Amino acid sequence: MVTVAGCSGSHGGARAQGDDLDISRLLEATTYSTVLKAPLDTNSSNPGDGTVLHPKTPQPVYERPGGPPIARLPVTQLNSPAWMPVIASRAGWHQVLLPSRPNGATGWVAANDSLQVAYTPYVIKVGLSDRRLILLKSGRQVGSWKVAVGTAATPTPVGRTFLLSSLKGSKTGPSPLILPVGAHSQARDTIGGGPGTVALHGWRDRSVFGRASTHGSVAVPKKALKALSVVPLGSLVLISK
């Protein structure tokens, strides 16, 4: 993963968490959970500034700065280090996208020395109508490919999400690499035995590219998958109609 890392260095946010908060009792914000009180992303087309963060220890997530806790961030997501994109910041606080349902769920994390802050130059854009994935680095297009997207019955969800994990595919599977994102199918509760998590992945049959043929995930050509393999976790994925 290519990032430029550093620590937040702020203790003010840590005090705001409250010394008596038992975060083990909070719902863990993962791709398997639903954070009902999470505020929704209101700027879903914004490419952000590339800031991402990683909790080195489990962190409470708040509905708003100084507000009630609604969940906790784990250190890992799907066996990968947990990196979330920062979509807003204010004194002592970071607002991040969550990997949980509902799609577009967000939460606020208090800045403290247990957060590793980094930068990613990459943004991934997926256009559903033209069935195309565009990879940007530092605002410049570095790749564009026709892809397969969800069908009318199982559409790929639109909005702002992020690369959640990097998983090695099975030798007999359709893709050597699977890149789950922090969004879920709104038509199915489960995909492939999982919680309906949408992913970017390869596909052996090249005839699918340019078609609406998946259960909601985005199938990409071999060259696209290779390019995506170096994109840091936490990088934004903008899916539009």
From TrEMBL:
Positions of the L,D-TPase catalytic domain: 122-240
Pathway named in the protein's UniProt entry: Cell wall biogenesis; peptidoglycan biosynthesis
Location of the region described as Disordered in the Swiss-Prot/TrEMBL record: 38-59
Keywords: Cell shape, Cell wall biogenesis/degradation, Peptidoglycan synthesis, Transferase
The keyword GTP-binding belongs to this UniProt entry's keyword annotation: no
SUPFAM superfamilies found in the cross-reference section: L,D-transpeptidase catalytic domain-like
Biological process terms in GO annotation: cell wall organization; peptidoglycan biosynthetic process; regulation of cell shape
InterPro entries: LD_TPept_cat_dom, Transpep_catalytic_dom
The protein, known as: L,D-transpeptidase
